[in-house]
From TrEMBL:
The chain crosses the membrane at residues 187-207, 219-239, 314-338, 350-369, 504-526, 532-555, 849-871, 877-896. SMART domains: TRASH (SM00746). It is a multi-pass membrane protein. The lineage of its organism: Bacteria, Pseudomonadati, Pseudomonadota, Gammaproteobacteria, Lysobacterales. It comes from Rhodanobacter spathiphylli B39. Belongs to the cation transport ATPase (P-type) (TC 3.A.3) family. Type IB subfamily. It comes from the Bacteria. This is Cation transporting P-type ATPase. SUPFAM superfamilies: Calcium ATPase, transduction domain A, Calcium ATPase, transmembrane domain M, Ferritin-like, HAD-like. InterPro entries: ATPase_P-typ_cyto_dom_N, ATPase_P-typ_P_site, ATPase_P-typ_TM_dom_sf, ATPase_P-typ_transduc_dom_A_sf, ATPase_P-type_domA, Ferritin-like_SF, HAD-like_sf, HAD_sf. One of its GO terms (molecular function) is oxidoreductase activity.
Amino acid sequence: MNAQACCHGSDNTPSTATDPVCGMTVDPATSRHQSVHDGQTFHFCCGGCKAKFEAEPARYLVATATHEHDHAAHGDAHGAHLVKDPVCDMSVDPHTAQHRAEHDGRPYHFCSARCREKFMADPAAYLGERQPAPAAPAGTVYTCPMHPEVQQVGPGHCPKCGMALEPMMPSLDEDDGGELRAMTRRFWWLVALTLPVFALAMGPHLFGWHLPAPWDGVAGWVEAVLASVVVLWGGAPFFGRGWRSLGLSLPSLPDRAGGGLAEAQGRTRERMSIRDRAMTQRHGQAVPAHRVAKQRGSAVTEGRVRRPWSPNMYTLIALGTGVAWLYSAVAFLLPGIFPDGFRDMHGRVAVYFESAAVIVTLVTLGDFLELRARRRTGAALKALLGLAPKTARRIAADGSEADVPLEQVQAGDVLRVRPGEKVPVDGVVIDGQSHVDESMLTGEPMPVVKAKDDAVTGGTVNQDGALTMRAQKVGGETLLAQIVALVAAAQRSRAPLQRVADKVAAWFVPAVVVAAVLAFAVWAMTGPEPRLAHALIAAVSVLIIACPCALGLATPISIMVASGRGAQHGVLFKDAGAIESLRDIDTLVVDKTGTLTEGKPALTELVVLGNQPREHLLALAAALERPSEHPLARAIVTAADAEGVPLLAATEFRSLTGSGVSATVDGSTVALGNARLMAESLAAISDDANARAEQLRQHGATVMFLAVDGTLAALLAVADRIKPDTPAAIQALHAAGLRIVMLTGDNATTAQSVARTLGIDEVHADVSPADKAAVVNRLKAEGRRVAMAGDGINDAPALAASDVGIAMGGGTDVAMESASVTLVRGELGAIVRARKLSQATVGNIHQNLFFAFVYNAVGVPLAAGVLYPWFGITLSPMIAALAMSLSSVSVVSNALRLRRAPL
């Protein structure tokens, strides 16, 4: 897009205008984003550019004004000498471009300052010079998606199922090292080689094609050669996997079904981008393999995983394809050695090159479809990884600013976050105010106001104001990195439902081999002529149609999708067991402070008893409490600051332990405390004031009396407020059939007040941490399935004792460690979403297991020829291969429906 049109004032609106921020050409007549500065109207391509301009107009106007002047002077003289902005690919005039940079001695020109900054932060990313990313940090642990207990240091393949091992920490790198491209290329080569084989073999039967002599003999050789290439080259990965599943080594065979895929996979698995490593490191040090193993509760093997005897789907494919091809090759070259049982009515020995070739091609198609579908299951996790920006704008001690790669940001750095940009790391705002979109981490759509001293989280989006922040947590310590690690761990964990499939899978392959032998024997003894040929086809069909992978994928693929979906809605599952268990919960035990309430005292009411203004009374109380760090004092001071009341100075300050405080403020003697202090101050408390105070106490508030010059002037009620979303959440939980039990260490009056307000079923007040755990155990002993939601250290025993522990996101690390579910934003309503997701996931797993069991239970007998005695129907090995290839894809596709499950 050419960027030579310029911004003009509204008095003479041109046909096109240039966005002064990004340099894009926009139509003033249709542009919805405009801003007036110094009487001149500017047009923008989007709201983000408009926000950036309004935050720092001078930064963009210098370049725009210079560009307009130079363009008018040069006209089209340089139109033939335009160059491309290496960042946005826009055409710019090197003679008029205001933004320039040099790299390796070569000049580059840019349409805007932002493009230049991006280029300077990472030139190789825009010049196509990027070298292959360095290998993963030493000690990177890889695991199997289907068998997470299989772990090793370095890339490889699973000795149980043959699947490629993947890093335990995911990568954002979209380039897979050519794995999918190589598999696609190999598949189309196999199609090109298999179609002639299929046409030559099946043409006479399907279309009546018959080649005249001597071409019929040549056609046989063509069929044999092409089929041999397909089986020996295209099927080599399957033979390699099948061989290794028997505990044997055959390093010359590739691991994956793709040209050069062993090498491509190695490059892919070893590669991690700089940004990904920054998110998986702690304080600049990679997490050691033994620590990862310890955290996950699994053993990690240094080097290669030992090869157990673990026959799998590829064992069956190798057997079926190998038998079909080997038989056909011998029958083609040495037909005389076969007995009459293999010969048809014309005395010929049939060959099945087309079956072997089509089986290999269809299995490769299945692998390709499964690989592509499995990638989609990790889309949510990649989306989380993609939240982190590549660079951060760091402010140096001298006030200069520069974009630096994210991994160079350290705790304590001062960073600038401009409108429309992502917050790079976790930290605290030290200047500025803006709305920040946190929906990608919490699932809540409403932006949150951020101002000085407010915490901001890496990956969230600054919307409309410039913020200056100080970095506090970087790399693996950020909330985003911890969420990614937690979701990745949950995706690798095994659900209890998987145990049934595991027990069946342990006997599956031997049972299929026995079924194939029995099918061969029955057909050989009772089948029509040629008996042995029919017996061979039946045995091959049985071996090919069986699909243990459908059983193996049924649970983990659903868990993977559900974990990512939960993370998008602010619900983090520690493991698959939590996803399954949450579905059966019938009782929710909740802590009061920090779970139902905000967790900090706040001034809820100031009752004026005299004729003095409320603002003045609040200012007097704040003057007394400002020196104190007591939570009740902080609540009064915070309310005064929020309302902007005048700051008054207190003198002759006296603190009376157990009673309150007194001082001289604004020429008056002021006392704030309990009834005892009022008596000492000679301030009489009327019956109406006592009744009002008792009413406030019944609502869970702590009441303080304020006296001015010996006269009771006000009542101040301080309480821990109920969170705004709590009533609706409790109502939704009740509607879902859950019994709500509240446990709190607070007094019974406050607890009962909160319970009445929210309609909670059962209340236990004045309980210790041990008592909380005892209540949970009692409920479990009554046969209830109990979930516990809490946020404090005192909740940890109860969280650990419950069937499902739920930690509120704003709580302590101890609570989160003890829980199996974490709510990022700490809102009780997220439990409703988590339970819906759990129900949808378990239902999806049941569907997958049902399909896998039914498919194999029906498919194997059909392949064996069980319908032949009644209907004369047999199943071709080619149809069996197609069914087997689509079975795993069907399981994965069904699991992907969880991405759209209503929550």
